[in-house]
Write a structure and sequence with these properties.
Length: about 240
């Protein structure tokens, strides 16, 4: 069993337990998706806060890069000093992202091969249940669910891009790459959702739909952080002006 399979096994137990309680595979899958997203919320938040801290430092980092463009060693030293001064860890956003990806891939593995990781024979039939317009959750839905998944992915990705935008942003080539991702990734999701089991597409759509509301909350947090940072700067300027007088 591979690494993601090891993680998919306990997720399979949870999905089976939920199915035994609610008696409907789609509802059990929806509840499992919500549980996973709620568990990942602190990691999403930590990553966003780290990104916000880096974003606020953008102009200062760019100034250091310009000033010490010919002295990489001094540049790294000054950037390290700036991180320490601002209380920002540039690696703080990496661990939450890694944890998210591990859990998501474990769930992806479970929903792509549900019969391999569920411990109950009753689930062998449950994965073929119908839900709303979908006749068989183990078979691909040709259009409606893939389109919904693509729209939710676009909205979530667009809002995440806004959350991660840095002042004085990256060069045009980076902007072009982000635009390719913004439009290309949702199209890829539509194509994949038409290929994989509807149960997996259901998870992805619901996950991205919840992420939209997470991003709304993260936008509020970022605005509050920005306001606090601006108030702190004004306070420092006022203190200096008072000291000079």
């Amino acid at each position: 069993m591979d690494f993601f399979g090891i993680l998919a096994t306990p997720l399979g137990w949870i999905l089976t337990w939920l199915y035994d309680k609610v008696g409907n595979y789609a509802i059990a899958l929806i509840i499992l998706t919500v549980i996973v997203k709620l568990c990942l919320y602190p990691f999403y938040k930590k990553q966003i806060l780290s990104t916000a801290g880096m974003s606020e430092m953008g102009p200062k980092l760019q100034a250091i890069q310009r000033q010490y463009a010919d002295d990489k060693e001094m540049m790294n030293q000054k950037m390290t000093e700036l991180y320490k001064e601002e209380g920002v860890n540039p690696m703080a956003g990496c661990l939450p992202m890694i944890i998210q990806m591990i859990v998501i891939m474990g769930l992806f593995t479970l929903l792509r091969y549900p019969l391999k990781y569920v411990p109950s024979e009753s689930m062998y039939f449950a994965v073929h249940e119908s839900f709303l317009w979908i006749n068989d959750l183990a078979q691909p839905d040709p259009w409606i669910l893939p389109i919904l998944a693509g729209i939710a992915t676009f909205a979530s990705f667009y809002m995440s891009q806004q959350n991660g935008a840095m002042p004085g942003q990256a060069p045009n080539s980076s902007n072009a790459m982000m635009n390719v991702m913004k439009y290309g990734f949702p199209i890829m999701i539509v194509w994949l959702a038409k290929t994989y089991a509807a149960g997996l597409a259901t998870y992805w759509f619901l996950s991205q739909f919840i992420q939209i509301f997470y991003n709304i909350r993260f936008n509020q947090i970022r605005r509050k952080m920005k306001e606090e940072a601006e108030a702190k700067k004004r306070g420092k300027k006022h203190a200096k002006a008072v000291a000079r007088t």
